[in-house]
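Budget justification aside, the reviewers requested a transparent look at the raw inputs and outputs of the sequence design task funded under Objective 1. We therefore reproduce one unedited record. The lines immediately below are the structure tokens for a 170-residue chain.
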């Protein structure tokens, strides 16, 4: 098979490899890169293809092996070897594990600010927070629904103002 014939056969089959590439990478751009790398490898190694065998299966194998090689290379790049006596393998990443202390302090501040609210605002706000609908709050407190909405809005606004130190935090 000539290079031209092989290239034509490769071009006809290449579009059917994209769904498999998407399944492996789960990302459109990475799937395109994997597809391109697979076609390039297939074309540069066309002399290794046995004419009369299944070209599509050969391409799927190249794609799968390329994906596995790239994945292993990525994992090796993110692994450091500790050269101390114990030889620990440490996976590096950009992820940071939070210990929850910041969240605990924030929650204490939120609860403190809610407790400081006037009961006229705190009660409807807490009922809404617990899942009551506006009309349910209005019925239980025997006040108009507009008043309920207004009081909850005022409570939120006051809490937001008093807790603005946390506005830019996660």
């Amino acid at each position: 098979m000539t290079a031209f014939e092989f290239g034509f056969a490769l071009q006809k089959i290449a579009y059917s490899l994209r769904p498999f590439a998407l399944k492996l990478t789960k990302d459109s751009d990475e799937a395109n890169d994997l597809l391109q790398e697979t076609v390039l490898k297939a074309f540069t190694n066309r002399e290794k293809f046995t004419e009369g065998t299944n070209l599509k299966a050969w391409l799927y194998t190249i794609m799968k092996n390329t994906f596995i090689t790239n994945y292993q290379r990525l994992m090796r790049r993110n692994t450091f070897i500790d050269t101390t006596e114990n030889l620990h393998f440490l996976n590096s990443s950009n992820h940071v594990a939070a210990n929850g202390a910041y969240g605990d302090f924030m929650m204490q501040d939120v609860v403190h600010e809610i407790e400081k609210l006037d009961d006229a605002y705190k009660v409807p706000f807490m009922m809404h927070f617990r899942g009551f609908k506006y009309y349910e709050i209005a019925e239980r407190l025997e006040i108009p629904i507009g008043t309920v909405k207004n009081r909850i809005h005022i409570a939120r606004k006051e809490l937001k103002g008093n807790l603005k130190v946390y506005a830019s935090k996660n």
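The first strand starts at residue 79 and ends at 81. The CA atoms of residues 92 and 109 lie 34 Å apart. Computational costs for records of this kind are itemized in the attached budget.
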